[in-house]
Design goal:
95 residues; elongated
Length: 95
């Protein structure tokens, strides 16, 4: 009986680890600039529409999204990070 219980526990543990591994691997290998969807609307980004926030460039799908993003930027950044999105660095302006 004990052996069966430990076998089931081991199987459940392995299944849990295996289910998390693809997600964790994606986050470990994500590279800056992997943003493909708008953080506000979720549609494909237009690289001509963006805003720079905390030295990161955030892209949007349409002109109405940047003002919405600016209302609660940390909320949208946290949601992007939870999805494994790493915004690219904003260009540094030279004087």
């Amino acid at each position: 009986m004990k052996r069966t219980t430990w076998t089931i526990v081991a199987f459940v543990l392995i299944a849990c680890i295996a289910s998390v591994m693809p997600w964790a691997a994606g986050r470990l290998h994500a590279e800056p600039g992997n943003q493909t969807s708008c953080p506000v609307m979720g549609f494909d980004i237009n690289r001509d529409i963006f805003t720079d926030y905390k030295a990161k460039r955030i892209y949007f799908c349409c002109p109405s999204c940047p003002p919405e993003f600016r209302k609660k930027p940390d909320f949208y950044i946290a949601a992007m990070q939870a999805k494994g999105v790493l915004p690219e660095d904003a260009p540094v302006e030279a004087f």
